[in-house]
Design brief:
It is a single chain. This protein has helices spanning about 30-40, 60-65, 80-90, 100-105, 110-115, 160-170, 180-195, 215-220, 225, 280-285, 310-325, 330, and strands spanning about 50-55, 70, 95-100, 120-125, 175-180, 200-205, 230, 240, 245-250, 255-260, 295-300. By secondary structure, the protein is α/β, with parallel strands linked by helices. It has 12 helices and 11 strands. About 30% of the residues lie in helices and about 15% in strands. The chain starts with about 30 loop residues before the first helix and ends in a 9-residue tail after the last helix. The strands form 2 sheets. An 8-stranded mixed β-sheet has the order 2-1-3-4-6-5-11-7, with helices on both faces. A 3-stranded antiparallel β-sheet has the order 8-9-10. α3 crosses α11 (about 310-325). The chain folds into 2 domains: about 10-235 and about 270-310, Thiamin diphosphate (ThDP)-binding fold, Pyr/PP domains (Rossmann fold, 3-Layer(aba) Sandwich), CATH 3.40.50; about 235-270, no CATH class.
């Protein structure tokens, strides 16, 4: 094919591998996979320039099911592997697929440093609040008191909140979606792919075998309009079946208010995903259904910042220009060396 030839027109089916999908019937992972395959053809990136890297867990089977390059790496280390790949091959589009156990337990430190470096990676964390692959133990995101095989009297670990962690590390793109809200999920994945820097997406995903209904309040058509709030840049935070409720700030605390009782849209908190100050995004990430708040979905934060992969390659170019191309044999025999006889 000529270097100037147009890219072939791809379809979602072109991104489906020949591997049998080995997730439990009804698993929310199927939806995430379907939306990813739907988004890929719209990006204009050749399949050979796309890589999916995962760790260990149900979600980490993902690379097998995408007809792209992929790596099924080791437990919790997908961000480290992805960092090395993106640094050495900046031309590639790299996706990290992880779960609440893989990414936040054994992989927590790797995830945190990848985010703070602002690598040009897309991280998708499937959050089902349970260890599914190892058959139903509580995970870092399981709620306090959760009864599981490993916590028969109720979990006593305070849960981690993935977006709060990401924003605390000053992630430049942070978003949340839900496996069954397919249009929203597809749009969120596409926006993440367009971001230059680390994009971190949490997906509320159902494990119908070991933690069925973990996010039912945010997914049920009878409740979701009152229990979730969709973030839109520059728009007031309004929610509810009749769109008659909103979020405003009372000092530094958010509160739910009703519109029309002396309160107008101008009194509400307006969402600003582009603010360089992450405090309001962090505040939104702390809003919980169990505390009486709707849980935000959408893009919490989207800002620009220096990228580690870009800067390290700039340093290599500068060093090469100033000192010439390196030679390993010369390096080994330079400085304080000695010979062992």
């Amino acid at each position: 094919m000529s270097i100037d030839a147009p890219l072939p027109v791809l379809k979602p089916a072109d991104f489906a591998s020949d591997q049998d999908v080995r997730w439990c019937p009804g698993c929310g992972d199927y939806s995430i996979l379907a939306q990813m395959k739907k988004v890929m053809p719209t990006l204009g990136v050749p399949r050979e320039n796309i890589v999916f890297i995962s760790g260990i867990g149900c979600s980490s089977r993902f690379p097998y099911y995408m007809n792209t390059y992929g790596m099924h790496s080791i437990h919790g280390r997908a961000p480290a592997v992805a960092t090395g790949l993106k640094t050495s091959r900046p031309d590639l589009m790299v996706w990290v697929i992880t779960g609440d156990g893989d990414g936040l337990s054994i992989g927590g430190n790797h995830l945190m440093h990848c985010i703070r470096r602002n690598m040009d990676l897309n991280i998708v964390l499937f959050n089902n609040r349970i260890y599914g692959l190892t058959k139903g133990q509580y995970s870092p995101t399981s709620p306090l008191g959760k009864v599981t095989k490993s916590s028969p009297m109720g979990a006593i670990d305070n849960p981690l909140h993935p977006l709060s962690l990401a924003i605390g590390c000053e992630a430049t793109f942070v978003a949340r979606s839900i496996d069954t809200n397919v249009k929203h999920l597809a749009n969120t994945l596409k926006r993440a792919s367009e971001h230059h820097g680390t994009s971190f997406i949490e997906v509320y995903q159902n494990c119908n075998i070991f933690n069925d209904g973990a996010w039912s309040y945010a997914k049920d058509r009878n409740t979701k309009l009152d229990t979730t709030i969709e973030l839109e840049h520059g728009k007031p935070l309004i929610f509810g079946k009749d769109r008659d409720k909103g979020i405003r700030l009372n000092g530094l605390e958010p509160e739910v208010v009703e519109l029309g009782k002396g309160i107008t849209e101008d009194d509400l908190l307006f969402h600003d995903e582009r603010s360089p100050e992450p405090s309001l995004a962090y505040l939104l990430s702390r809003m919980r259904y169990e505390d009486g708040f709707p849980e935000p979905i959408g893009v919490f934060r989207s800002v620009d910042a220096p990228r580690y992969d870009e800067m390290i390659n700039d340093q290599v170019k500068t060093a090469t220009k100033e000192k010439g191309k390196g030679d390993l044999e010369t390096l080994f025999n330079t400085g304080e060396t000695w010979t062992v006889k």
